Amino acid sequence: RERVRAMFYHAYEHYLESAFPYDELRPLTCDGQDTWGSFSLTLIDALDTLLILGNVSEFQRVVNVLQEGVDFDIDVNASVFETNIRVVGGLLSAHLLSKKAGVEVEVGWPCAGPLLRMAEEAARKLLPAFQTPTGMPYGTVNLLHGVNPGETPVTCTAGIGTFIVEFATLSHLTGDPVFEDVARRALKALWKNRSDIGLVGNHIDVITAKWVAQDAGIGAGVDSYFEYLVKGAILLQDKELMSMFLEYNKAIKNYTKFDDWYLWVQMYKGTVSMPVFQSLEAYWPGLQSLIGDIDNAMRTFLNYYTVWKQFGGLPEFYNIPQGYTVEKREGYPLRPELIESAMYLYRATRDPTLLELGRDAVESIEKISKVDCGFATIKDLRDHRLDNRMESFFLAETVKYLYLLFDPDNFIHNDGSDFDVVFTPYGECILNAGGYIFNTEAHPIDPAALHCCRKRKEEQWEVEDLMREFYSLKRNKKFTLKRASDHGEGESTGDSVDTSSESGGEKRSSKKNTHSLLSCPSQSFNSKLAVLGQVFLDNT
What we know:
By secondary structure, the chain is an alpha+beta fold. Helix content is 42%, strand content 13%. Residues 483-518 are annotated as: Disordered.
């Protein structure tokens, strides 16, 4: 664990020193480059890893840096998929963890806050991509102008089906359903266009819904679609998403699984098209563990681990019958997927083999890819040549999953025995009780946070603003404000908004108040609050 911590800081400090504010570090030349947009991406991606390592002071500093320095109003063509998983996911995760990290949160958190507003702003920049006849998004969007007129309509399956975790979280926290709606529509469009034998291909035309690449498998181009059906089902307790995955799982076992390996097949016929294992497929045992299929997960994991031991890393493509790398696909960009599966499986089984994989990964990465300015992508696992790039997922995922594998007492592994109670304008809410859902960039989302914020936010905040304004005039008087019920504007509830934070912490209860200065429970919401902007008291 301490070696993993040292790895993180070796990479992180050199990014800050040599590459910030660029997206990524170039470790061989000790400088930086923009890769996915120009968001200081490595900083956003590494933020929640800082907290998992226990570094609250640096977390707080970075939150301030990002608030001041990141701008999404830029004329840049950005990947819709990558911006979502890295930027939106990273900001949402950091937002939900900020109180735990000692950041002074604003009134209404977790339903409000600067990082949440940044995540929402970034996600809104992606929404134009979803305006297609099928609801499946374009792969690229210009952050200033929307979808470029000449943009290709061909998008990979993962680029369509990897939004529900971040977008549903955004909708629940902000009260705006548009994000979850577009993510669900895209998921269902893929489901509707699966083949008669139950498989999806690799690339599809988002205008015509015609499959352009018809290879079906669990790896690159498809992977996180399946992952998000499972994680979306768990996050939202959604049986429909889980049943979709289980149907796919049957077809995947029937047509692509051979001796605990998964091959690529033609999506309509089921005939083998590529007998290769891709390093991106190594997430699958971890996903199987999430649905409780531990035996199959371990068998597949051990197959993948033999490849790691052969090369000291996972080549991008591995020819299964030949037992060797595929030409021009011999590299290992320090991907996290096998380590991710080891972390999940170790939580489920405590099998020491999984710790051995973790140790092997630390040894390999340190021996082969460590350079003076960080850790470099391995260009070729056969001769250990390096490439001048350190992907942001190295700090977001690879180091994080390694650290969590070796840190059984980390707050991320909380079993629910420890939690925080937070008071929001919508009532009491439980946070940090565990059960975190990692997005596909390893940004943990607290599922309990989705239950903290009521949908009908606007009315509630209107009440809050008026109340605060009024209270500043009548600071000496105690009052409560009745709230319109969620079910109808004319009903009253016993809930009252707690304003103790603004009055020296003095506790107030509606029961002790015989006369509430602002209460018209029998009237509709609008007439209760204002006419021509004036608030009416009981005695007017």
